[in-house]
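Feature request disguised as a bug report, sorry. It would help if multi-protein outputs had a clear separator. Right now it looks like this:
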Amino acid sequence: MATDRYQSPLSERYASKEMQYIFSPDMKFRTWRRLWIALAETEQALGLPITDEQIAELKAHQDDINYDVAKEREKLVRHDVMSHVYAYGVQCPLAKGIIHLGATSCYVGDNTDIIIMKTALELVRSKLVNVIAELAGFADRYKDLPTLAFTHFQPAQPTTVGKRATLWMQEFLMDLDDLNYVLGSLKLLGSKGTTGTQASFLELFGGDYDKVAQLDPMIAEKMGFAGCYPVSGQTYSRKVDTRVVNVLAGIAASAHKFSNDIRLLQHLKEVEEPFEKNQIGSSAMAYKRNPMRSERIASLSRYVMVDALNPAITSAVQWFERTLDDSANKRLSIAEGFLAVDGILDLCMNVVDGLVVYPKVIEKRLRSELPFMATENIMMDAVKAGGDRQELHERIRQLSMEAGRNVKEKGLDNNLLELIAADESFGLSLEQLQQTMDPSRYTGCASWQVERFLRETVEPALQPYKDQLGMKAEILV
């Protein structure tokens, strides 16, 4: 590792080797060469004088990129595509004259960008469905475990630990829907020429519109796409990048919400992210178990959500058929958005896979608040025994305030049940009141909702990806 220059933390610390390869020079320039081969084969099939020997020569050197030759040539001509055309020609003297025939730089540049984004989205999808699957297992294990729910981070009616996990899952499932929609809509630029009119190809094919019409579909099929965008300027619309990175930002937002909840639960000591045997939580406070992974999810997620502005603004300011103020921004915003989301999903997999639940802590906190939540049931029982609903409501309100003051001002335990038992208007003994304190009585349909959600929503959503499940993620730092 070079220690005298900047290294991107996305590569050094966060993103997987698989995602790093997708945005590597090897992936980029090997794809350029595949596109040049596809163009040559298509032009040959449509009648241009290109020989089998020339195509065979191109294929023989498809993967062994002579980077040194291209780098030296770029110093001279200041053009990356023409430098690689030259370098490929050095290796392929027979085919030298037909490489990039009729094409503009965006033929390789833009088509490769689409291919790379498609490949990267497929990797993101694999990791996303594994996060959902891990959460599904967690939700199923804890679907019946009552826990205190919060609104405004204030105690509210109980839910279950598993039901809370379905809320995280549902957002990731929305992201999966968005990802699949955008992935299914991706098309190649094709070979449109310098302003999108295909004028150079109309010239090459002697004015034969039918042959020009066949060019893009044939190239798309060779590259594994259903088709090409029907019209373009020199580039594919930069709105495509906006749609792709918005999907990444959506995943980041879902992951951020999940990580926030885990951090808050870890503060409450109810649920804890994995903590390794030799992990150090603080350089000063040796006892600390900081939620480092969840904090990193939040940190990277904020970067991706803000990164979505880059392609949106770039798309908005493109002039006519093309400008070049997109290029430098795209190199950063697209690649680093994907690398960051890759790291985020690895962290999510790692956290969910190792989540530790502390039922005793959960029960203790729930029981400390349960008397307040049970007051509706207590009031109904008292009414059935002959009490006046309005009078009982007022008495419960007063006693609840008194119990709240005991907890907040005096630091005492919640004694609401004792106060109610001592009030003759309720006609209920402390023993009778305590029998109402089963937490499962107050979780409503939570367990049933989890079972139904997993059966009717999650399992069908994961079914197409069952062969991709079981992925495990290791975090680098």
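(second protein starts here, but nothing in the output says so)
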Amino acid sequence: MGLFRKSAGAGQDGARHWTNVIKNSGPGGLLLWRQPEEDFNTGSTLVVMPGESAVFVSQGKIEQVFESGTYQLSTQNYPFITRLRSVLTGGVSVFHCAVYFVRKADSQEIRWGTATPIQVRDKVWGIYTSARARGAYRVRIEEPAVFLEKLIGSNIPFQFEEQLEQYFSREFQSKIKSAISKFLNSRQEELIGIDAFLDELSGQITPYIDETLAEYGLKCVNFSLAGLDIDTGKYDAIDQSQIDSIRKEKLAHGDKAAMDILGSGWDRQKTVDILGDLARNPGSPGTAIGSGMGMGMAAGNVLGAMAGQLFSSATAADANSTSAGTAADAASSEEPAPAPAADPIEALGTLKKLLDAGLIEQGEYDEKKKEILSRL
């Protein structure tokens, strides 16, 4: 069905007059719509809705641009119609002209994303990584004649908003990647958490986009970065290394605290614990049982040396206690006696652990215990 309907009405002279109404009949969501009909009479009415413009083109030349409003087209009002008038139809002057309706309202969001990663270096960790950016923008046609002439051309019947991306995809990619690369590589902080600066970065990129669009009669009314995705593979390895380092540090602090509490008795305590574990384990090399006799004998020598050292330590502690007591008696008339060199309770504890571990006989234990208790 054609856009125009001829409305015949009888005038005073009985002649029939033709009246055409020129208006945008294209579907919604279009940036540009070319009117299918191209022949109009000089009495046509042009209706341009708010948020759009009408561009009259003839012979590849833009004759005039009409903004929103209603216009009665006649040779008296618009000289270009007189020049374009060519034929008479039913006594009505007709001119031939292509009409484009261009939407000037803000477009819907047009999404974009970087096709290839952006190479950047993290100044804090001294590593290079990559980033991908994504977002959306809105545009507005500010100069319909420039937009039609430089971007679309006169042989395009219609244009959807989404098709703008095919015009600017590569140029936008270059501008966006350049701006993001400069921003990221200038930062002295680590790149993790860069999403906090998306608004700032969007503001820095917008002028580059505006510069590109202005050449085609367009304006960027809103450019936004929805996400800046950093490759975190190397950061994961750094995090794991730090976790391992912290774990080792905490364990080392724990060991040091234990040694500080036990003091000089730490080595002897660990030796007794080892001997006790071996004595309670029938399969241990220290028992010299089983097929590994050579290993058992060697381990037995080691255990004997360890036990002898412990027994000697207990005996030395006892001797020190005795010597200290004698010296105290001799010097009692001159000055106060010094504190005992070793604690008899500690010596008894060591002897008991040796007995429990089966490393000394009951008789040896009783004899030494009696000797130590005689001085308490």
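Even a blank line would do. Unrelated, but nice: Residues 1-19, 285-300 have pLDDT under 50 and may be disordered.
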